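Lab notebook, bench 4. Still working through the backlog of constructs that have no structural model yet. Next entry is a single chain of 210 residues. Request: give me the structure tokens for it.
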Amino acid sequence: MIRVLIADDHPIVREGLKQILSDTEDIVVVDEADSGSAVLSLTMRNNYDVILLDISMPGRDGLEVLKELKQLKPKLSVLVLSMYPEEHYAVRVLRGGASGYLTKSSAPDELISAIRKVASGRKYISSTLAERLTYELDRDADKPLHEILSDREYQVMHMLATGKSVKEIADELSLSVKTVSTYRTRILGKMNIKNNAEIVLYAVQNKLVD
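Model written out:
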């Protein structure tokens, strides 16, 4: 039996996932978590075969939690399930140690197949993501500017690019406005850009936002 922990801060999403998995004979949802801290706490106390992990959660975000999970239990399979398209986060989470990446628009059958695959110790990668990974591996050392950002900086940059204010980002990530402003300053410095308008332009040109 594949023991699963569902980590998502939206109760309706967790209920939907449980309903999908309840129709299987070999997968059982044994725990739920609505924050990054809860994921880490549960993982330290219990054993799971697969963690379904959302990227956007209050407090510690999914990318940060993923890194800590891989330090706590390196062999634990983590399947990231996100509302963001693959091109926004997939390569980054796989580099961070995730066993696979799925969007929330994926079909239920695909989710079940992905859970079974990562539970067996393999990676789950869609055909489109496989092509993107090949491109990433073949690309020369001239990386795009957003690749030099830390995971948290990239997350803040992406949220700024979608038009969110510093205060809105602070509220969503459970951070202080001062902390988010510091991240914004680092982003502008690292990417050698001047303001939010240039962040939006860069994100659009590099297809980081829809």
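Notes after review: The domain at 145-205 is CATH 1.10.10.10 (Arc Repressor Mutant, subunit A). The chain has two domains: 2-137, 145-205. Flag for follow-up if needed.
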